[in-house]
Design brief:
alpha/beta; Aspartate Aminotransferase, domain 2; Aspartate Aminotransferase, domain 1; 2 domains; 7-stranded mixed β-sheet; 5-stranded antiparallel β-sheet; 41% helix; binds pyridoxal-5'-phosphate; 2,2-dialkylglycine decarboxylase; transaminase activity; PyrdxlP-dep_Trfase_major; pyridoxal phosphate; pyridoxal phosphate binding
Length: 378
């Protein structure tokens, strides 16, 4: 997922060489030209008004920064996130990660709450209905309102849940979530680590939902393989957070080397029209996945779009009993046959994230390997 642009892209290598010959590191309290150029380049591709970026090193710390900003801006400290979310493994990011990797790290700071996931395939409110009627959100906010210790700071969510099982919220869910945040003076933070920078066939996943977040974060392939992330927000939010004394920085947050790699990755994303590439690959690949669903009863659901898609295995399509053990066996067979996928939800979901460099021949071969493995297990 971090190598989505391909390993060692020549433009990234060139950017690293330039920085190696000029300046690798610069003190975090001083601006360097690479950082300023990167911020202005990002502002050209973010929605109007979301002009302010801060650079960090990982997805986790970009989310921590986003939550710190929301706390400073609202004066609240409580944050909610859907139960299928993944936001990272630093303490504050893990505290709003509910899809796993949570138990056994001692108590988290107070004020982190799960909300019901918009998981239509398994939703007890709406899986039998024609559409989601947002009962999940109303119920979640009723519980949040009852628990909150005052004005809550934010909801943080992925626009399409990746690690939690490639779960696509139903149409309108993100807009309804934003409304409920606005009514309460809470901010909406979108974690676009897995979905942003062209991955889903648009520059940002939130564009496809008709929602503009208050803060959003990017990481993964942002540096073309080099570790850099960003937290992006509006002038108003940034100014108030700074006035109230916000400090978020790490020794290597804004190094010219990492910022230069990110400038190069933006060049690649724009010049190689990766939005269109993701759309094309996504449609072709989804065709394969839908054919697999026709051929194999074990495939209960095909989800996702662009470069982030998944299939869910069930032992029975009517009862939707998750096929954990079969999925784990399939995952092992795929690896033995040269296809790297990630196994989610204890085996019942395969997450498939091809890079932008994937060819149709490779997708045909991947589909053959998948077909054989599913066939062998059933
Ligand atoms: C949606 C999302 N947010 C945050 C993270 C954490 O990023 P990092 O591992 O760079 O801290 C990940 C990592 O997989 C992720 O998928």
């Amino acid at each position: 997922m971090c190598a989505a642009l391909g390993h060692n892209h020549p433009r990234i290598v060139q950017a690293l060489q330039e920085s190696a010959e000029t300046l690798i590191h610069s003190h975090m309290t001083m601006f360097n030209d690479r950082e300023i150029i990167l911020a202005s380049r990002l502002a050209e591709i973010t929605p109007d008004g979301l002009n302010r970026s801060m650079f960090l090193g990982s997805g986790s710390d970009s989310n921590e920064a986003a939550m710190a900003i929301a706390k400073r801006y609202t004066g609240g400290y409580e944050v909610a996130s859907p139960v299928v979310s993944f936001h990272g493994m630093t303490d504050a990011a893990r505290a709003v990660t509910f899809s796993g990797w949570r138990q056994g790290y001692g108590p988290f700071a107070p004020g982190n709450y799960p909300i019901i996931a918009p998981y239509r395939y398994r939703c007890s409110f709406c899986q039998d209905k024609g559409a989601c009627d947002y009962t999940c959100l109303d119920t979640s906010f009723e519980l949040l309102d009852a628990q909150a210790d005052g004005r809550m700071a934010a909801v943080i969510t992925e626009p399409l849940f990746s690690a939690g099982g490639v779960i696509e919220p139903p149409p309108g869910w993100l807009q309804e979530l934003k409304l409920r945040c606005e009514w309460r003076g809470m901010l909406l933070i979108l974690d676009e680590a897995q979905t942003g920078l062209a991955k889903l066939g648009s520059m940002w996943a939130f564009e496809q939902e008709g929602v503009v977040p208050d803060i959003f974060t990017i990481s993964k392939h942002f540096g073309g393989g080099i570790a850099i992330s960003a937290t992006i927000t509006t002038d108003e939010i940034e100014e108030k957070a700074v006035e109230t004394g916000l400090v978020v920085a790490h020794s290597h947050s804004n190094d010219p080397l990492t910022c230069n790699a990110a400038i190069a990755s933006l060049d690649i994303i724009l010049e190689e029209s990766l939005v269109d590439v993701a759309d094309r690959i996504g449609r072709y690949w989804q065709g394969h996945l839908l054919r697999l669903k026709e051929r194999h009863e074990l495939v209960g659901d095909v989800r996702g779009r662009g470069l982030l898609q998944g299939i869910e295995f069930v032992t029975n399509r009517e009862t939707r009993e998750p096929a954990y053990e079969q999925g784990q066996r399939i995952g092992r067979m795929l690896l033995e046959n040269g296809l790297i996928v990630s196994i989610r939800r204890q085996g019942s979901v395969l997450r498939l994230v091809p890079p932008f460099t994937t060819t149709e021949d490779q997708m045909d071969l991947a589909a053959e390997i998948l077909d054989a493995a599913i066939g062998a297990v059933t």
